[in-house]
Amino acid sequence: MHPLVRGLAIVALLAALGGLCIHYADTAGAHHPYPTQDDLATDYDAYVGEDVRLFATVKQVDEAADTATVRVDSSAGSFRMTVDAFDVQVNPGGVVQVYGTLRANHEITAQNVAVVNPAGASKAYKYGVSVVGALLVLAVFFRSWEFDADVLAFEVGRDG
Amino acid sequence: MADLLTHVLAVYVLLTVASWWVDVLTPRWIAIGMAGSAIPDLVKVGIVLDDDLVEGVLGLPFNWAPISTLGGVLLVAAAITLAFDRRYWRRVYAFLVAGGFVSLLLDGMRVYADGQSGAWLYPFTWWYPPTPSLYVTSDPRILVGAIAVAGIVFAIDQRLDLANE
Questions:
Q1: Residues A15-29: what's their mean pLDDT?
Q2: Please, are residues A94 and A122 in contact by the beta-carbon 8 Å criterion?
């Protein structure tokens, strides 16, 4: 196949991926089992009493009262919420998932809280480790494969 | 988002152990499987090019999330496959998709507060598969475990290679 045709096919596939990204953004909310964070940011009171699953950044924990103040981000801006029945160990800056029932005045009664990042530094840890993973993939890949500039395609390398 | 290194090591372990019995699983194909396991992590492009930024440029709603779904893996794997010489296409695609699928499966087994993972089978279904809630990505024990198992498999593999020479 002519390299130009292959190039065009790659562009077409990436365009199809872009189409998925647009379709997903447009329709995911309607298929979400709970109100989305955008829904809550724009019309909180309409969802009071419903179950939600939120990703939130911990601002402050009151261990004595089993509550936490968290920040919930959305594309329509972020807002603060108070989580009741907050029973996990997280430092401010950490990220949690909260599943529970929405109450008036931006309160949520948690049925379950799962820790995503126990502290703000966890994110840096994940990214750092991921960079090592990416380098490992590249190193392993180029041990077996090399780019043949004559045909503009990957070929089995000398050691592959 | 799980960490990429754990994904890559998991696929390395699965394919290397399988290679002890399956002759076609040579290092070059294990390398392709490992590359495939990195595909869902390309969703991190969103850290550099924020959804909102792309939305502003396009004037359309936009979310990178599909890269970390089955549909995204099938499309990205096809695009990568085309960068190879034609006689490898079928096998490159199969290993890329297999690696990507293992990553998605591992991500789908993470802890979710409500016991349901994300819609990672999109666009084939909007179903949120139940998760066994096995682990949290930020838990270093997961990575330490993955490195330890990968190290043992690597050592055994080297010995088998020597024995075969």
A1: 95
A2: yes
